Amino acid sequence: MIIAVKRTSKKRLIIRILSLIVLFIMFTAYYFHMSEKYAIEEKEKQLTQIEENKAFEEKTKKQKIEKLIYREVESAVDLIGQLKVRNVKIISKKIVIVCDPDTNIDPLLVRYGTLALVKRTLDDIKIAIDLEYIVESKYNEE
C-alpha cells in the first residue's frame, strides 16, 4: 500500500482564498442585480395599481353621474305626470321631454326655472332641461 501525504503549499492556499473572494464578489453582485430588478418590478406594479385605481374612480364617477341623470329624469316626469309624457330622450347634455299639449308644466318650470326651455306646438309640448348645471351642482353635493 502506498500512502501519499500532501502538504499545504502556498499556491493552494492562495487559490482557495482567491476562489472564496471571487465567490463572495459573485454573490454580492448577484444580490445587487436582483434587488434592482425587484425594485423595478415593484415600481411597475405600483404604476399599474395607480392606473387601475384611476380607471375604477372614472367608472364609479360615470355610474354616479348616470344615477344622478336617471333621478332627475324620474323627478321631471313625476312633476309633469307619467300619463302626460310621450317621450323622454337625452340629447347633447339636455333632457328632452315630449308631452301632451294640455299638460300643466308649471311645477317643472318652478323647479328648473331658466334651465328648462319650452316649445309649445299644436301637437305637443317639448321641454329641454340643461343637464350640465344640474349634474355639476348635485355631483358636488354628494
Poorly predicted regions:
none
Classification by helices and strands: alpha+beta
Count every beta strand, where a strand is a DSSP E run of 2 or more residues. 4
N/C terminus separation = 97 Å
The shape is rod-shaped
Spatial order of the strands in the main sheet? 1-2-4-3
Beta-strand proportion: 15-25%
H/I helix tally = 3
Radius of gyration computed on alpha carbons: 38 Å
Query: How much helical structure, as a percent, in the residues?
Result: 55-70%
N-to-C SSE string, H for helix and E for strand = HEEHEEH
Mean pLDDT: 89
What's the main sheet like? 4 strands, antiparallel
Set out the fold topology.
Layout: H1 10-80, E1 85-91, E2 94-99, H2 106-112, E3 116-120, E4 125-130, H3 131-141
Antiparallel strand pairs: 1-2, 2-4, 3-4
Describe the structure.
The protein is 63% helix and 17% strand. It starts with 9 loop residues before the first helix and ends with a helix. The protein has a four-stranded antiparallel β-sheet with strand order 1-2-4-3. The longest helix is centred in the first third of the chain and has 71 residues, at 10-80. The chain contains three helices and four strands, in the order αββαββα. The radius of gyration is 38 Å and the shape is rod-shaped. The chain is α+β, with helices and mostly antiparallel strands and 142 residues long. The mean pLDDT is 89. β1 and β2 (94-99) form a beta hairpin. α1 (10-80) packs across α3 (131-141). It has helices at residues 10-80, 106-112, 131-141; strands at residues 85-91, 94-99, 116-120, 125-130.
